[in-house]
Amino acid sequence: MAIARYTLAVDRRTRRDGEATADFIGCVAFGRSAEFAEKYFRQGLKIVVTGRIQTGSYTNREGQKVYTTDVVVEEQEFAESKASSDNYASAQPRQSYSNSAPAAPAPSSAGPADGFMNIPDGIDEELPFI
C-alpha cells in the first residue's frame, strides 16, 4: 500500500508584526490518494484536504517523548485552476520534483477566465461561518 506524507502550509489571516505567518499541518494519505499526491502535488500548489485528526506519540533517540498531530486524508483535490497553478509555478524557481497538474474543468463562460469568482474585500466580516 502506498503512503504519502506531506505538509500543508496554511497562511493565517492575521499578521504578526506586519509579517505573514503560516501554520504547517502534517498530512498522511494512503492507497490511491497517496499515489495521486505523489504524482501531482508540488510545493506552492493550492489544494483542499478533508480528513480526520490523528494524534500519537513516540520516544525519540534522545529519550524525549514527542507528540504528533496529523490529518489522515480522506479526500484531496486541487483548489485552483491549472492556469493559475502554472502562472504561480512560472514565477517560482523550478523544483526537481515538480510535476504538471492535470487540467482542471474548463470555467463556465459566465465566470472570470481562471474559473474562480472574485470576492470583494471586506465581505468576510458579513459571513456568519468565518
Number of domains: 1
Which oligomeric state applies? single chain
Shape: globular
Largest sheet geometry? 4 strands, mixed
Please write the string of helix (H) and strand (E) elements: EEHEEH
**Structural class by sheet pairing and helices:** alpha+beta
Descriptors:
4-stranded mixed beta sheet, alpha+beta, 2 helices, about 130 residues, OB fold (Dihydrolipoamide Acetyltransferase, E2P), about 15% helix
Description of the structure:
The chain has helices spanning 31-40, 82-91, and strands at residues 3-11, 22-30, 47-59, 65-78. By secondary structure, it is an alpha+beta fold. Strands 1-2-4-3 form a four-stranded mixed beta sheet. The N and C termini lie far apart (37 Å). A hairpin with a 5-residue loop joins strand 3 and strand 4 (65-78). The protein has a single domain (3-12, 21-125), classed as Beta Barrel (OB fold (Dihydrolipoamide Acetyltransferase, E2P)). The radius of gyration is 18 Å and the shape is globular. The longest helix is centred in the first third of the chain and has 10 residues, at 31-40.
